[in-house]
Amino acid sequence: MKKTYNIYIKLITVVAFITVMTGCVDKNDTPPDLPPFTPGTIVPISEIHEMYGGEMMQITDNISIAGTIVMDDAQGNLYKEVVIQDTSSGLFILLDTSKGLLQGDSVVINCKGLYLDDYNGLLQLGGVPYTDLSGNKRLSGFNADDKSKKYAINLETHPKVMSIEELNAGDYQGQLVKLEHVEFIKTLIGRTYADAENLQAMNRPLVDCGGNTTIVRTSGYAYFADSLLPTGNGSIIGVVSVYRDTKQLLIRHLRDVNMNYTRCEDGGGVDGDVLIFENFNNLGRYGDFDIPGWLAVAETGSKNWYGDGYDGTTAEISAYNSGDDSNIAWMVTPAIELSGYDNYIMDFLTGYKYWKGDILDVLISTDYNGNGEPWTATWTKLEARIATEGDPTYDQTGGYISSGEIDLSAYNGSSVYIAFRYNGSGNDGLTTKYRVDNFRVYAN
Amino acid sequence: MLKVKILFFYLSFTIWINAQNASISGIVKDLDTGNGLPDVTIQAENTNFKTLTDEKGQYTLELTGGEKYTIIFELPGYTTVTRDVELKPGEKKTMSDITLSMLSHFQQDIPTISFTESGSENALESQSIHGLLNSSKDVFVSTAAYTFGTARFRIRGYDSDLSKVVLNGFIANEEESGRPYWSNWGGLNDVMRNTVITTDPSPQGEIYEPLGGVTNIITRASEYRPGTKVVYSNSNRTYRNRLMMTYSTGLLKNNWAFTFSYSRRWSDEGYVEATFYDANSFFASIEKKFGNKHSLNFTFLDAIYERGVGGASVQEVYDILDDNYYNPYWGYQGGEKRNSRVRSSNKPLFTLNHLWNISENTTLKSTVGYWFGKSGYTALNWQDVADPRPDYYRYLPSYYTDPADKERITELWQTDPSYSHINWDHFYYTNSKNLYTVEDAYGIEGNNVTGNRSKYIVEDRRNDISQFQFNSNFEHDFNSGYQINAGLNVDIYRGESFNEVDDLLGGDYWFDIDKFADRDFPGNTDVIQNDLNNPNNVVYEGDKFGHYYRSWIRNGDLWAIGKYDADKFSLYFGGNIKYTVFWRQGMFRKGLFPDNSYGDSEKQEFTTFGIKAGGEYRITGRHIINTNLSYGTRPPLFRNSFVSPRTRNDVVPGLTDETYYSADLSYNYRSPSLTARVTGYYTRLNDQVHNMNFYHEDLNTFVNYSMTGIDKEYKGFEIGASYKLTATISANMAAGIGRYLYKSDPKVIITQDNNQQVLETGEVYAYNFRLPGTPLTAVSLGLKYNSPKYWWVGVNGSYFDDIYIDFNPVPRSTYLYWSEPQKQDGAFILDAFIGKSWRIHGTYISLSGNFSNITNNTDFVTGGYEQLRFNPLRQDLHQPKYYYAYGFNYFVNLSVSF
């Protein structure tokens, strides 16, 4: 009896032991079956813009947009927001995290269930609306991983090159553009992109040499917020945003800004360093020709170069009323060192009145020694477009003709002089009146 | 022959033998086996007449004739029996057989206090006294261990690093935190019954006892009762099932003894949702005696576990879900519950003890031990995604100000489990299609890795150890009442802390960069590196990443205590001197701190000391007064010494050792019907250091928050009483009433985590704040009926009050936002227990049940913490997190011994 009992107990023990040893507790960490990503119908982004009627709305159709992320928030100029662009248009997208999508990602975003709203004119695609602390209804960010799939990464982004005028005139919201030959207004010299200390965003006006203006807006959280604005002229790439009626350009990182060239007022607005620039403004109206380093001298006859014009004066000459058989007047630049660059380009403006014949030449010399008698040196004529009969004559508003880009690269390594030689005659009536302005040589 | 065992509470008595003219004799038996019980202490109350039973359970106690005596029969782990005798001069009386029964058959299989987690991410569960080891005979201590455990009661308010656990001669407190972690030997209850617990610095002889006392677990194979015991338990607490098996040979004729134990605890879910439990514990003890002089004992133990744990959340969530046990750590994965916070451990401990009875009065005990292995807990990590934790403040209704939004979010919480819990499926979905190219991986130019970069992973935050210890203590009895006890502890420790990729959750790899540095220094490819020696680290499952450093700690502790024991009183006096050196060895060169993150930090050296004295005065045998006085210094803990141990070698400015002093005074009353103790205590800890890392809202950055000069005061009363109403009914009462206060305004240095820049210095105005995390008032009353027919039933009512939650120092360092720490409501908890045992053909069967919180009080906050993130403009955003005591819970136990 006792033995049986003990055997029974021991048997139970062994069975229990084995059961327990082999039993297992499931941690439930086997990967789940994942639903495939379903894009729905892909529509151009422009259709999303058209769909929006000016009021917050939910997208209920099973549609997607496909494009490249042209701007992300990794550098802090956007926060929990990216910009997608396709061939038709671009769109700002609100996400629930920073770096939810990255620049160069090629993605399809399924828009079903997402919301559209404009923030002071800027259309945004976002998630469920909520009311913010100031009582405004805003879109929340949505989860990009739920709603999108990447098909390729690290793609190059290609900005559309345009002028400020075009930018301001067209609707390029959400698109990546490149403005060339632009600069921040002069009063911003020494300022930063934004107020990094107080984390305040700043609007910085950007102008071209023609005076067209747009805004570069930078968040105080951008990592380059405390970088100094470039003081020069050049190109800038950014995404077009709007605030009410104002267009704004948002830059992605400082690599997008290449503005180290000479400013417009110093002859800039070109892709290169200006070696010499002269706008003759300090001559004054009817002033004698007196510019340090320059030479204006009449080889024959009595008329010489002098200042004339309205707001800014030009170098002017006319043999009218001279009475001379020959009136040859030289205007010669200082010596220009053509070295240190690959390409040297010269340009200037000319205007005329009372055309009597083409009597202005542009010459170049490598052996003139600056002795005040340029006619003693060897000069070569340069092909330049100079105002001539058929062109409009100049007036108070301008009407000057550009010389076009005159390539001086052949003179690389030399020290050269450029001369404007007026070959008039009071007697023969070769008295065409010329004006020369904005002479410059730049190199790159 | 065998050494006298000393009960925890009474100081050692030397055996006092006088020529006596009368005696009693007889035999003491084990109720279970009917065999004689050796080593039972037999003492005439209020006297020094004392003896032990021999190996057959026989005894003879010499007494003076013509007197009345109360004779006490005591053996640790067994019931105590008293008998009154009156002896004529010269009488040699033979007593009837005395039977003692193992306490384990009564309340001893009482189990588990719920493991808890504090807010600090470094904290593993830890408790100063644990229900598992409840074998103290002191009413207050056993109540504190078991009944008060529900409320996270800490004896005298002490942190657990103020007490030490000694496992067969090996100090098992973890070196870096100073705390004992009971999970390291969980499930081995049956082999840890031979335990002596003290809660004050009175001498026990193993080590130099710290302020909070010693738990001495003796695992010598020969000390176990021979036989086999199988226990099955069922519970709804941290686990559902437990099976324990223990086999012991006892001391065999060839002087070998073997004990083996195995236990498994398991459940798919505990009281809290998604807390699975899977634990296997192993134990072996082998002893060999060499004559009477030497004995060698080898012990191996290992508790291997993996378990999902629960975490605290904010009241707002509890209220929305109408569930105070909401666990933010889990979510559905493929329709099944998965926990993101899994603790695991596998740390085998080997000890070899040598016991040398040099002479009858002299013993030398030595232990060498080696403890090593891994432990850690998993957590989510993420990059470039919104915070995936469901109760992150932005996902709560309170984040919104508009009522419609609040309503919408509340509804999401109540109806959408992918919102109210972790959304594992989304993690997999995300990771499976996040194409990304890491350029110049591992710092090799042109080595581009393209694949699905995981945005979410589960990381294992590991803390592995390798520890060697040599402990030795020497005891000599001068036979004149004088005794000397001295020892040496040598400890050599190396910890390794790092993150390991546990689960890529469907992605191909994890790109190991510092996401906060990336945020603060975008585009800087050096600064974002977690290890500049291996930049652009692409890691896979099992790889180390994030941070990796070693903690080297070495110390030597030399101590001695002298005792004198006289008729009416005893005294002790002792001291220690301890040398500690520790340093950090960075294994990664952090991009933010290339110059002081890799390699060894400066060595931090501390020489600390302690002195203590105390004793007892026996007014009569019934009235005893005893006291302990101690003073000393302690080295700062490794965990608190480095400004940011994960990233760099910087030491907290002004790091210094702590000073403590303490006094307690107890009055003890003991009669056959009433046992009572009242203790008053006062303790002061000065110059503590505390270090935290968190996001500082005002300063808008991650900071290292170092507090120094923290002074704390602990004072209060402990009362414990047990009264026998009848032979079968007894009443118990215990009360702990304390006032634990901060006694300084700690200095604060706030350093920016990114660049070591000191952002702010100041003070935390915490003077007279109450210490958090334990009820300052805990009272319990119980009744127990013990039937002579081997069944018992009891009921216990407890009341807890004055529980304060951990306060956030940030708002308390300015008067603008200063407020008192939050006090929680008091609570009443009712517990009951019942059991019966049978003996059938030599097989002992015991069935018992413990039922806690039987009124199902689910509103009892036992602790919590204010979040360190503090937004002065919207203080409601970062609400405190609370822990609640479990509602009704039970533990049923069936044990079979043969």
Q: Biggest interface and which pair forms it?
A: A-B, 51 and 60 residues
Percentage of residues in DSSP E strands of chain A? 35-45%
What fraction of the residues of chain B are assigned to beta strands by DSSP?
Answer: over 45%
The average pLDDT value of chain B, as a whole number, equals 88
Overall spatial form of chain A: elongated
**Helix count of chain B?**
7
For the termini of chain B, the CA-CA separation is 29 Å
> What is the SS-derived class of chain B?
mainly beta
| Contiguous runs where pLDDT drops below 50 for at least 5 residues of chain A | none
Mean pLDDT of chain A: 91
Rounded Rg of chain B:
29 Å
List the helices and strands and how they pair.
The complex is a heterodimer of chains A (444) and B (898).
Chain A: H1 2-22, E1 41-42, H2 45-51, E2 57-58, E3 63-71, E4 81-85, E5 90-94, E6 106-110, E7 115-119, E8 122-126, E9 129-131, E10 137-139, H3 144-147, E11 148-152, E12 160-162, H4 164-169, E13 176-184, E14 202-208, E15 213-218, E16 233-243, E17 246-250, E18 257-261, E19 273-278, E20 295-298, E21 306-309, E22 313-317, E23 327-332, E24 336-337, E25 344-353, E26 360-365, E27 380-381, E28 401-402, E29 406-407, E30 415-424, E31 433-443
Parallel strand pairs in A: 1-3, 5-8, 12-13, 15-17
Antiparallel strand pairs in A: 2-7, 3-4, 3-6, 4-5, 6-11, 7-8, 9-10, 13-14, 13-16, 14-15, 16-17, 16-18, 19-31, 20-23, 21-22, 22-31, 23-30, 24-30, 25-28, 25-29, 25-31, 26-27, 26-30
Chain B: E1 22-30, E2 41-44, E3 50-52, E4 58-63, E5 68-74, E6 81-86, E7 92-94, E8 98-100, H1 139-145, E9 164-167, E10 170-171, E11 195-197, E12 214-217, E13 227-235, E14 241-251, E15 256-267, E16 277-290, E17 294-308, E18 313-314, H2 315-321, E19 330-333, E20 336-339, E21 342-346, E22 349-359, E23 362-382, H3 403-415, H4 417-420, E24 422-423, H5 424-431, E25 435-438, E26 449-452, E27 456-477, E28 482-503, E29 510-512, H6 515-520, E30 537-539, E31 544-565, E32 569-586, E33 599-600, E34 604-618, E35 623-634, H7 638-641, E36 658-670, E37 674-696, E38 701-724, E39 729-742, E40 747-752, E41 758-763, E42 777-787, E43 791-801, E44 803-804, E45 823-824, E46 827-840, E47 843-852, E48 861-865, E49 881-884, E50 889-897
Parallel strand pairs in B: 1-7, 1-8, 9-12, 19-24
Antiparallel strand pairs in B: 1-4, 2-3, 2-5, 5-6, 9-10, 11-12, 13-14, 13-50, 14-15, 15-16, 16-17, 17-21, 17-22, 18-49, 19-20, 21-23, 22-23, 23-27, 25-26, 27-28, 28-31, 29-30, 31-32, 32-33, 32-34, 34-35, 35-36, 36-37, 37-38, 38-39, 38-40, 39-42, 40-41, 42-43, 43-46, 44-45, 46-47, 47-50, 48-49
